[in-house]
Amino acid sequence: MAAMITTPRLMAVGGGALAELASILGRLGLMKPLIVTDPYLAGSGHLERATGYLDRAGVVWKVFSDTVADPTTAVVETGVRCFGESDFDSLVAIGGGSSIDTAKAMSVLTANGGKMRDYKVPAEIPKAGPPVVAIPTTAGTGSEVTRFTVITDSETDEKMLIAGLACCPVAAIVDYELTLTMPLRLTADTGLDSLTHAIEAYVSRRASPFTDGLAKNAMGLIARHIRAACAAPDNRAAREAMMLGATTAGMAFSNASVCLVHGMSRPIGAFFHVPHGLSNAMLLPEITAFSATAALERYADCARAMGVAEEGEGSQAAVARLLDELRRLNEDLAVPTPRAWGIDAARYDDLLPVMADQALASGSPANNPRIPSSDEIIDLYRRAYG
Ligand SMILES: NC(=O)c1ccc[n+]([C@@H]2O[C@H](COP(=O)([O-])OP(=O)(O)OC[C@H]3O[C@@H](n4cnc5c(N)ncnc54)[C@H](O)[C@@H]3O)[C@@H](O)[C@H]2O)c1
Ligand SMILES: [Fe+2]
Question: Of the ligands numbered here, which is closest to the C-alpha atom of 168?
Answer without folding.
Answer: 1
